[in-house]
Design goal:
Largest sheet: 6 strands, mixed
Helix content: under 10%
Shape: elongated
Radius of gyration: 38 Å
Number of strands: 36
Structural class: mainly beta
CATH architecture of the largest domain: Sandwich
Distance between the termini: 142 Å
CATH class of the largest domain: Mainly Beta
Number of domains: 5
């Protein structure tokens, strides 16, 4: 009997211990749930020291009622974003109340401060919305336009330089690309207008002080209902000296949109002749057929090389290709060098140069413009000793048309003087 009684006592003791432990666990769970309910009921408070902040200012966030975990944390988030989104954060290091400081987000907008539990996304509290304003910003008055419509661009927060500028550019293009632009003339805030270009997706951009340092970019907008840029010639073959009539359509409408004639297959920054459209979105341009070869007509926006359209290839025949030669193979310092050229495109700023033999196309020691002559002579004075060539270029560019051969030499005078 004593043995059995002892066994029953031990069994009862074990049951009492189990009940105590179970009760303690239940009480702990209830306590944790109560704390969560208190948080949900608004015990945790989060506030900011202002409702509007300027660029680079300090935001002071005050919090109270946190659980006291070392990794409870305070974050700054866009207003209305999900609880997993934040821009900046700091841990509370176990403080149940206190302050946390942040730099204002680097963009205009509406934001909130939030409190989270123990390195999780369990949000405990959120502040009222505050705003950040004063950063450079640019926007358009609509999201969709018809070709030819007026686009009103609003800008704010610019530095105030006379040559700060606003542009319209294709969406996704690099910061050096633009189709239309306007200077702000020193205004920090204001509006400017553009003509909606051809069909496509575009953005407005703000830049500082005549540089490509972009300050802000708008949301993309679309242009529909118009013809895409196109360009064509009135024939597929011409004789040298003929008139080439180029028809274009769907251009942006900038004064400095331009049409060119270029060698087929050449780079987009290469041209033989060009004219500005002077703001016409559609029209014609005329050129003089250059020397024998294959060519294309091209359309560009606003004095840039962002090509909008290219014509089918056309041919020029029946004339001489560009050529250039000198009247002698050697000269003495002070002599006159007579250069004969032919087959030039006929631009006023086609030009003839004297350059060191083997030098790059952008190197020269003397030059003259042809003033629109397709053939003729140009004279130079032999001023330097060495080996040289004469070169022909079109329309104030470095696109070499012809080079004399062989090279000619310039030597010192017989008596060794340099004149």
């Amino acid at each position: 009997m004593t043995f059995k009684g002892g066994g029953l006592w031990l069994l009862r003791l074990a049951m009492m211990v189990f009940a105590f432990v179970a009760c303690s666990q239940t009480d702990g769970t209830i306590g944790h749930a109560q704390a969560r309910l208190n948080s949900d009921a608004g015990t945790v408070t989060v506030t900011t020291d202002a409702t509007d902040y300027a660029p680079n200012s300090t935001i002071t966030v005050t919090y109270d009622g946190l659980p006291g975990n070392y990794n409870d944390w305070i974050g700054i988030s866009p207003a209305g974003s999900d609880d997993h989104t934040y821009i900046d954060y700091v841990f509370t290091f176990g403080q149940t109340s206190g302050t946390a400081t942040f730099n204002a987000p680097a963009s205009n907008g509406s934001f909130v401060a939030r409190a989270y539990e123990n390195n999780t996304y369990n949000k405990l509290g959120e502040s009222p919305t505050f705003t950040v304003s004063g950063f450079p910003a640019v926007s358009t008055d609509l999201g969709t336009y018809t070709a030819g419509d007026t686009i009103t661009v609003s800008y704010s927060g610019l530095p105030g330089n006379y040559n700060d500028w606003i542009s319209i550019a294709p969406t996704g293009s690099d910061d050096h690309t633009y189709m239309q632009y306007a200077f702000t003339l020193g205004q920090k805030n204001g509006t400017t207008t553009f003509t909606a270009p051809g069909n496509g997706s575009y953005v407005a951009r703000a830049y500082t002080n005549n540089t490509y340092t972009k300050l802000a970019e708008s949301s993309a907008f679309t242009v529909t209902g118009g013809a895409p840029p196109s360009i064509s010639t009135d024939a597929t073959t011409y004789a040298q000296g003929d008139t080439i009539t180029v028809t274009y359509d769907g251009l942006p409408g900038n004064y400095s949109d331009w049409i060119s004639i270029a060698t087929s297959g050449s780079g987009d920054d290469t041209y033989l002749q060009y004219v500005f459209t002077q703001g016409q979105m559609s029209g014609t341009a005329t050129f003089v057929a250059p020397g024998n070869g294959s060519y294309v007509a091209r359309a560009y926006p606003n004095n840039t090389y962002a090509k909008l359209a290219e014509s089918s290839v056309f041919a020029v025949s029946g004339g001489s290709p560009p050529s250039i030669s000198t009247d002698a193979s050697s000269y003495t310092l002070g002599d006159t060098i007579t250069v004969t050229y032919s087959g030039m495109p006929g631009n006023y700023t086609d030009w003839i140069a004297i350059a060191p033999d083997g030098s790059s196309n952008n190197t020269y020691v003397q030059y003259v413009f042809t003033k629109g002559q397709q053939s003729g002579t140009a004279t130079f004075t032999a001023n330097d000793t060495g080996s040289f060539v004469a070169r022909a270029f079109p329309n104030n560019t470095y696109n070499l048309l012809a080079e004399s051969a062989p090279a000619f030499t310039v030597a010192a005078s017989v008596d060794g003087g340099t004149d």
